[in-house]
Amino acid sequence: QETLFPYIKDNVKEYLRAHWEEEECQQDVGLLRKQAQEDSSLDGAVPIPLESGSGEEELERVIQAVVENVHWQMSLDRKTTALKQLQGHMWRAAYATGHVKGEIFEDVVPAIRKWREAGMKVYIYSSGSIEAQKLLFGYSTEGDILELFDGHFDTKIGPKVESESYRRIAASIGCATNNILFLTDVPQEANAAEEADTHVAVVIRPGNAGLTDDEKSYYSLISSFTELFLPSST
Hints:
Strand order of the largest sheet: 3-4-5
Structural class: mainly alpha
Shape: elongated
Radius of gyration: 20 Å
Strand content: 5-15%
Distance between the termini: 37 Å
């Protein structure tokens, strides 16, 4: 988050200028414009006008409106499909050109390799889109590590703070919820997973939001994947 989201804010105008004529970019802007119309009653919402001419000044006016809309949505930590789609396309371009790499803690890859050797399967469930996940792990500081994962889930399966999402994931991978360990740094997600009878550990990493004393005493806490000792798959 400390790299990817600032990248969007700092580069969205440049990206739009460079890709404006492309069909994909126009689809992204169309989705954002539609979202802006739905948001019109919200405080501070930024409308995105249609292009009414072909002049350079007119184009800059529309691009600036898109930039301001994106900044407004991000300032509220919104996760609309329109915003996530544009972010995903920007990140794809940034990863492909080497401007951005997915940062992976050094304990992660060796631990996952051990789990897989023991017969366990590893899945990613993130509020980031599946496309964004694959970019992060495909262009990571540890190289392309997509082979380490058996599948990916995003919020299309359901919000991470709702227990039903974890039941859907279990059904999708053909596994009982109580045979799943969910790792997260967000207590609300941990609570939802627990309600679905999923095992949970809360991961403490630099830059993560702090936990209350009650949360620290209630949840199993780890600061490295090496602290997890999992039974072999049978």
